[in-house]
Each structure stands twice: as C-alpha cells, then as structure tokens.
Amino acid sequence: MSTKIPFQLVKDQTFFESLNDWLGDTLYDDLTEKGFECRDEQIYMAFQIEQALKDKNVLLAEAGVGTGKTIAYLLPALAYARYTGKPAVISCADETLIDQLIKEEGDIQKLSQALDLSIDVRLAKARNQYICLKRLEETSNRTDEEFVDLVEDELPDFIYADRSLQSVFPYGVRSDYPYLKDEEWEMINYHPIQQCAACDIRNRCGQTIHRNHYREAVDLIICSHDFYMEHLWTKESRVRQGQLPLLPEVSMVVFDEGHLLEYSAQRALTYEVQEQTIVQLLERIMVDGIREKSLQLMEQLLDVHELFFKQLREHATQNDNERLTINKNDEMMRLAKKAVSLSNELLEEFVFEGELYVIPEYDLKIVEEYLEQYIYSMELFADQNDAVDWLENRRDESTLLIMPRLVTSILKEKLFTGEMPIVFSSATLSVEKSFDYLAYSLGIESYQSFSIESPFDYENVMKIHLEQGVHEDNIERLSMLLSEEEQTLVLFNSKQSMMEAYEKLPLELQVLVAYEGERSLSSLVKDFQQRKVQVFFSYHLWEGLDLPNESLTRVIIFDLPFPPKDPLFEARRQYAEDAFDEVDLPFMLLRLRQGIGRLIRTSEDAGSIHLFVEPERSELLPVIERVLPVPFS
C-alpha cells in the first residue's frame, strides 16, 4: 500500500504550505470535478485544521449540519499521518457513528474513489465489543439458550482446529451478531474480570487478532471515545506490566461529536463492584485441597460483602435514571473497610496457594487481579474524598460504581499537553456562541476555535411545532402523531421515559415502533434507514445519526434533554455557583440542538420537528427559541 504524501513536496515550501495548497486544489477543483459540492464552510474548516496541525494546538471546530465536516478533517488527517509516519485517530461518539463513517457509501470510501487514493483504514473497537471465548464457553455450559448455539456455529474453524496461525482473520465483533439482544450479548462479550494475558487461547481470540491488525495501520484508526479514553487511562499501567498500549503512537486525534468526550472520560475512569462477581469468582476456586485458612477468609469476605450490599440497597434512593443515590452511614463504611482488610489478607494467602498448584493458574490469576481492583474501588468508596458513587441494578444484580471527580485534571495531564494536535468536530460545541462550557468541563486551557453556520436553507425545509401539555396529554398527542404514516424518530431523555411512553401506546401503534434495546442498535438503524421500520424510539441517538432523504422526515422530541437528577450530575451541580445556568441549561441546549440536527442532513431533505414542552418549563421558551434554526411555526 502506498504511504506517499498525496501531494508533491517542493524545496521552497514547508509541508504545511504545501498542505495548504493541496487542500485548496482538492476542495475547489478535484472534488468538485467529481461531483462533490464546493462548500466555502468546508474549505474554511479544512484550513483551520491545517493551522491547528502546524501549531500542535487544540481546535474546537463547530460547523453546522451540511458543512461536510468529515471530509474537512479527513484530508488534512490523511496527509499529516503520512507526513509524520504515524496514523491519525478518528474517535467517534459511539459504534453507530463508526459504522456510518466506514460504510461502503461513507465519506472515506467516496474520498478514496474520487482522489484515487488507497486509504488504509482500520477499526479499534472497545473491548466489550468483542466475544470472549471463555465467557461463551461458560455461558454454554450453564444455559440452553438458543442464541449460544447460533454464535458457536458461526465461529471460525481455526479457533479450535490445529491449524497455522497464518490462516487467522479478524472476527467476533458485536456488529457480526445483529440478532442478539443487548442482554444476550452481555453474557458472552469481554468482561473486565477476564485475564487475557493468562488465557490459553488468546492467540486465537478475535479481540487479540483485531488488536494486531489495527496496530499496523498506516493512515487512519477509527475508534470510539470510550475506547480512546480507556487507552489513555491504561497506557502507563499496561506498559509497566510489559503489555502494549491499546493504541500505537499516533500523529493527531479528531474527536467527532467531541462535545461527548467528557462522558466517555468519566465512564473510562469509573470503577465497578458487582454484587455477584466476587461470589462467582471465589466459589470457582474453592476446590478440593485448598488450605483451610484461605477457605475461611473467603467465606468471611463473602459474608461481609453480602452485608455491605444489603446496606447499599437499603440506603439507596431512586433518581431520574438508573443511577441510585447512596446515603452512606457508619455501618456501611465499616463493612467496606472490613472487606478491604479481608481481601488484603486473602491476597497474601494466595501467594502460598499459587505454590501448591491446587487452584488452576488461570482462575487464580483472575481472582487475584479482581481482588486488587476490588480493594482499590472499596477504598475509594470508604475514603472521605470527592469521588462520586452510585448504585445501579443491572440484569437483576446490584452494581456499585465509583468515579474519581478529577477527570478534568487527568485529561489536562494526559491529553491536552500541547505535544499533539487535537481537533474537536461537532455541530454543537458552543452555548450561545461561547466555548467556555466545553473547555472548562474538559480542562482545556489553550485552544483555537471557530463557529460556522449550516449552509442549509432551514426556513424553507424545516418546520418546528411546539407541543405544550401535561404528560398524559402528551402521550395522547404522541399517539395521534404516530398514527400518521411518516418516518419518525422519537427522542426521549431516558430509557425509563421511552419505555413508559411505549407501554402507554395503543397496541396497533406499538407494532409500528422499534425501540432502542430490543436488539443491536446498528441493526435497528439499518432497518429504519431502509424503511422496514416506520417509527424509531431512542434515548441515546440525539447526535450523530445520519438518515438523509426519505429515511427520516419527522423528529419528535418528547422530553427536553436535561441532565438527570443523579449522583454524577449532582456532584457537578455542587461545584457550580448557579447549578441550573452552569450545568443543566447548557447541557440541555447542546443536546436539543443535536436532536433537531437529526432531521436535515442534505440539501434535498425536508421535514418537521415536534418539540414537547410541559407547562412548568414554559419560561424557557425564549432561550430555547434562540438556539432553534427556525422559529416555532
């Protein structure tokens, strides 16, 4: 594959001067001749990115829908990757956006064909997007679920056959199994307790094969924000342990839908303690021949752990979403500290157990690694610091989550160092023309920025209808709208709100609706795009969903997208002088603009927005109307 810079370097010009000329020639002439639309906004954005590359600075690039942001960043990213000899990373908000970027009719493919460039593009997906062969085997042994047999039948022959590793190929990603429900996938995918380094079939694991594949990328690595943040947080520890970082050294990073990076950073820093995981792991190593002292410590730890979770459940308060607020007390703290003490004692005993070889080495390694993470998490919970913690119920199991609050300082230290150019691309990075909200939340001190409007004639292609009424009236109005045959995306603020609305619909309307969570998101989006589904309910797809032309002609925003009343956002509110103006309102306005942006994706699109606003929020209508592309009809 050619790795040449896609333009000629000359002696009397720097690389950046040559890049500037090439961008102009390509965007004004070459692509226009191939049928691409010449857009001044796109050209301006490309030149701003070129300047950010030269300065090795952070660029907040806010460009409206229809600007052609993807091509504006792909061209300089490709050239810079080949100039530096290191691939560029394009980080997307989620797996759905990745699929849209790399699809056959996507911008990368179009660009490659138009410019006769062979672009080396490789995917780096989050670890939970891969099948774990060990977990698949365990699930197969304990259940008769039909989906397990289907997945096993589709596994490549080389996994268990005695064949050369030269015949292996990447396999086993979530998108390969669109028929699986989310809860089914979560029974067989990678889980953090798995010890890949000690796994006897890691060389034939789909995740390992994918890792080896994308590390050899020349031009572009496409990943999710979650994955990039996981790479950032684990890079130093993986190197200390003699492992490769999740990503190779790269030349630059583009964060597409970059306004969502903060939440990915928080997720990557969040530690989990499940109610049943430690029970399952310890019971797994309670084998014949284990020393009495180790056995007694394990039983004591399980008793304390059970009492600790009993306390959590009894003192947890329900919020707007799945995050429950924990009301801490002395007994809860005592049990947490006791669990830490017993876990440390148990780790000391495992040193002797390892020398006896009674416990299988792989199982013992998993338990040791898990206990170290368990100790760290429980200490973080029990210490009087500014960590944020909450309880969630997942698949009938309670899970404690703990997140250090220092996301901004860690990002400042590990990402925004001034050593690598970083581009944030989105239609919504500012709040009423100010970038302060985003910069402050990410810890960005020095940056370049610009904001350009969408080139679309919204006045003639979009109507926004205000729907005002109490909740029950809104359900009735929603039913009336859905009875009209139209490709409709309905956006909700939470899964709870979505399911409540779905369950209150008449049965004859329920059959028209596909809702997020009933199967893989990518398959739902594909069916909706192909008009096999008329109505799509979602609580995540406020941004990034690209459904042009007749695929989507109406967007219904059923809830104003305020952040939830939960421990995570409550912590942010505590550190704000005016919680509503500094946290809730900016978040809602950004997300609202994104949701509205789903409707008009090309110059041929037209349709309507229905915005539901309950009476108690009517005082916000003036500020809402200021951020709308067109006034209310």
Automatic annotation (TrEMBL):
Family, as annotated: Belongs to the helicase family. DinG subfamily.
An MF annotation (GO) of this entry: ATP binding
Keyword field: ATP-binding, Helicase, Hydrolase, Nucleotide-binding
GO BP field: nucleobase-containing compound metabolic process
Stretches assigned to the Helicase ATP-binding domain: 28-302
Species, as recorded: Sporosarcina newyorkensis
Lineage: Bacteria, Bacillati, Bacillota, Bacilli, Bacillales
Pfam annotation, one family: Helicase_C_2
InterPro entries in the cross-refs: ATP-dep_Helicase_C, DEAD/DEAH_box_helicase_dom, DinG/Rad3-like, Helic_SF1/SF2_ATP-bd_DinG/Rad3, P-loop_NTPase
Identification of the protein by name: ATP-dependent DNA helicase DinG
